[in-house]
Specification:
Shape: extended
Number of domains: 2
Mean pLDDT: 83
Number of strands: 14
Distance between the termini: 46 Å
Oligomer: single chain
Structural class: alpha+beta
Largest sheet: 8 strands, antiparallel
Length: 190
């Protein structure tokens, strides 16, 4: 039978050793990569019968519809982003999408290349996208959550952990999906 005191002492020793040996994210010493070593231990602990003790809690998610009306906005995408622009599809786009709502233009900048595509702003749909953080100042917004609309004018909005669909049109950005948190002027909305 496993003694809890031994397990607790082992975990404490592991944490102390990782703090001393790793120190920074680029820790390598004696030809041995301690980061890989501790990631291996972390994966082993997660897959063990006690794995639930070593996993971060899952953040709550809330279904929302959000309309944002900024002057400009840059969306950073991941490598698996698929775009639909009217009847055209772009698969596996990885880079920045910059929308200028005053100039009615949009720029696609592919990461790690010199490719920049500028075109008139039109309806663009991005499905299954994840955005860690959105922070906008001096913008108009409307957040619909639990059949309640919350509006802000020339306000600050902060959105965390969005996943879902993003729609660009001539005047706004629409987000339809889930979030872990939305704040307007530093007050909780969701």
């Amino acid at each position: 039978m496993l003694d809890w005191k031994i397990l607790a002492a082992s975990v404490a020793a592991l944490l102390i050793a990782s703090t001393i040996l790793v120190g920074t994210s680029s820790a390598q010493g004696f030809g041995f990569d301690f980061n890989d070593f501790f990631k291996g231990i972390e994966e082993w602990l997660k897959s063990s019968p006690l794995g639930g003790l070593f996993q971060a809690p899952v953040a709550s998610v809330y279904p929302v519809d959000i309309v944002l009306e900024p002057d400009t906005y840059v969306l950073k995408t991941g490598s698996d982003t698929n775009l639909t622009i009217d009847s055209m599809n772009i698969d596996n786009f990885n880079g920045d999408i910059g929308a200028d709502f005053e100039e009615k233009s949009i720029i696609f900048k592919q990461s790690n290349t010199d490719l920049n595509i500028r075109m008139p702003l039109q309806n663009i749909t991005i499905n299954n996208i994840k955005i860690d953080k959105i922070f906008l100042e001096n913008t108009n917004f409307m957040v619909t959550y639990n059949q309640l609309d919350t509006k802000g004018e020339n306000a600050t909005i902060e959105i965390s952990d969005f996943s879902g669909q993003v729609l660009f049109n001539l005047f706004s950005i629409e987000l339809h999906g889930n979030v872990s948190m939305v704040k307007g002027n530093n007050k909780d909305i969701v």
